[in-house]
Design goal:
The protein is mainly α. 39% of the residues lie in helices and 5% in strands. Helix 1 (20-29) runs parallel beside helix 2 (55-66).
Length: 82
């Protein structure tokens, strides 16, 4: 995630994507669905069939995260995002 200049990318919420790594990290480290409350990639990385500038690097981060050991809820959210 550190290799990407997130602040220079546009997010689906209209701001820069500087906050997207925080959202991803919260999801990746979540052990339960409750741990993810308030953290979503919806509307930031994708909205229905619309993607944004921050989508391609986010997909790369998600793919790398899926290769690791994740909780079932975190894995489900990331797979659904893809």
């Amino acid at each position: 995630m550190r290799r990407v200049d997130w602040a220079s990318l546009k997010c689906g919420c209209g701001d820069s994507a500087e906050h997207v790594p925080l959202l991803i990290e919260a999801i990746i480290t979540a052990e339960t669905p409750q741990d993810m409350i308030g953290y979503t990639l919806d509307g930031h990385v994708e909205e229905s069939t619309i993607i944004f500038e921050c989508t391609p690097p986010t997909v790369g981060v998600i793919m790398a995260a899926l290769a690791d050991d994740l909780s079932a809820p975190a894995r489900g959210v990331l797979l659904q995002t893809l």
